[in-house]
Amino acid sequence: MSVVLVGILLLLALIGLVRPYIGLLALLIVMELQPGELYPYLAPLHLERVVGVLVLLAFLLNNEKWRIPPPAKWLLAFYAAMLASVPLAFWRGNSLAFCLSFAEIISYALLASSLLTTEKRLRWFIVTLMLLIDWLGGSALYNYDHGIWQYTMHIQRAIGVTSSAGDPNSLATTLVTALPLAILLMVRSNPPWMRLLGLGSAAIGIVTVVDTGSRAAALSMIFLTLMLFVRKPKNLKFLPVLLLLSPIIWLVIPQQYKTRYETVDHLKNDESYQNRVLSWHGGIAMFESNPITGIGPDNYAIANGEKYWPGTGRKHWLDAHSLYFKLLGELGLLGVFTFGGFVICLFRTNFRARQKLIEHGASSFLQEMPSMFNIILCLLLFAGYAAHDLYRSTWYLIGAMTASVSLLPAALPSASAEQTSPDNVLDTGADAQQWSPALLPVLRGNMQAGARSVQA
Fold first, then answer.
1. Is the confidence at residue 289, as pLDDT, over 60?
2. How many CB atoms within 10 Å of residue 424?
3. What angle do CA 39, 143, 51 make, to 5 degrees?
4. Distance (Å, rounded) from C-alpha 272 to C-alpha 453?
5. Where are the alpha helices (DSSP H) in 388-429?
6. Mapping DSSP to helix (H, G, I), strand (E, B) and coil, where does residue 155 land?
């Protein structure tokens, strides 16, 4: 099986030398599946780097152009903040190694925003991504049913097979944040097979999330449901149905998970939660020790265990379990400013792109895409209360797709009537190939008339 997988990936990568977009899909598969973790003897090959280099080489050989819109600029600024934290990091070598590793995600996002140039490419990219996430969720569900699970917090919890969705909480977050993409595939204008894929993906995601026993993910699904109702008032007609189904849904959930969810009512007696609170206090102490650049990326748990843990007795090597304290403690004010700017830019870009796409009558799939991206961002921010998902690739993949949608012709301000006014016709001669052939005679006539009037 491993030989077949490597063969397929290398074939896609080789095809990608001629068609970089195909190479991008191969890179997506490698990033999500992590073949080196599935088959340890493949780890020395570093397939992520091999395929990434081939895609970059194809990008350059085919004279593709880098596209660096505002979201990409903010992403680069955030990466600069990570690098700036290294000289004063708690453990400089660890932070530097993490930054070098994180460069793979940055390169991946920049390549995606530069190669996802059409609706068709975006559509197949999302379909491929959903199939990969379905495999992560489906394989975890299969393993759970066959006795392969993790026993923590007094319950059996589904786990992923690779670091893309390894521990129960990480797996649950991956599946919950993919639900808006499943909903996007169910848009009526999509072909039936795509809508069925979206429905199946949603089913796999919801069932597997329950088996992870993640309280944060369960609350995130409730939050997602509320956002979907608020987003379109007409959806409120389904609220009574949901309220009627809620008791039935609760009854079919296994008792061990219901017991786990009920602990939310008495968190003061929950040792796991109280340790997280102590870890958050440790993050504040990290920020106070170096408020500008923080203690460096990937150092939170190490710094807690060696210096900053505020609790009595032995110190815990516990990570942040919070996006916000992770950001504050590891990257300081520079990280807060750049990451905050990145997220705000994504929200604004998606909002403006949706308006333009609606104005120009784009497909419903495209029109819904920016809204679903913003919902995913809201889910990540909501889940960030109890999950240190600062470096999760989902942020930067959504950023790349947001940038790509904003650069589609129908989403650009240049598509407005203002750009085609008579005063601007003379400036479009060099880009005549972008116009409809039926308009070229008129365009050339206007240019000639303009030239004669200038001579006169």
1. yes
2. 11
3. 30
4. 79
5. 393-406, 422-425
6. strand
